[in-house]
Amino acid sequence: MYDLASKCSVLLAKDFAHNAFTVILNEETRNSRSLYVEMNQTVISIYPRLKISKMYNFSFTEENCQVLDQSLENSTMNSRRGTSKIEVSDQKGVSVSCDFQYDLCTVTLAGWHHGISAGLFGTNDNEAGNEWTVPNGSFTDNVQEFTQSWQVNKCSLVPKKEKPCPITAKQNICKVFFEEPHSLLR
C-alpha cells in the first residue's frame, strides 16, 4: 500500500496481451479524480465524488463517441447501478465497482488474466518480487519512479499556482443564480 502523490493521470491496470481492458485514474480539475474503464469497445467514465458515471460505445462510430445513458442490452458487458454504487463487468472476468458512499473503487480480475496485465496495481501473477515493474520491464523500488513510469499524459509534478481572474458583473450574476445555496436554479 502506498500513497499516490502524482497529480497526473496514471495507468492502474491493462491487459497487454489481448487488450481486453484498461483502467486509468484520471486527474480532473479541482483535485478531483475519475476512473476511465475500457472493455469491449465500451468506455465507462466514473466520477466518484460527483456520484455519476457515463458510458460511451465507440464500436459504432469512428469520430464521435455515442453516449449510452440506457443499459447496454446488446453489449457483452454488464452494468449495474445502485443509489451509491456502480458495477461494470464483462464475460471475460473483468469487474470494476465503485462505492460512492465510501469513495472506494475495486478492480477484480479472473484467473484468465493471470500474468498478462500490468500497471500501478502490479503484474497480477502472484509474484511479490515483480510488483514494481515499470513499462520497459525493469524493476524499481522507488515510489516516485514507479508512479511516473505509469503516467499516461504529460504533466508537471508540482501543481502550478493559478492566478484568480477578476470577477466581472456577469460572472457575479451567474454565481448568484447557479452557485449560491439558496438559489432555486442551483
Automatic annotation (TrEMBL):
Protein name per its UniProtKB record: APLP protein
Organism superkingdom: Eukaryota
InterPro entries in UniProt: VWF_type-D (IPR001846)
Start and end residues of each VWFD domain: 1-166
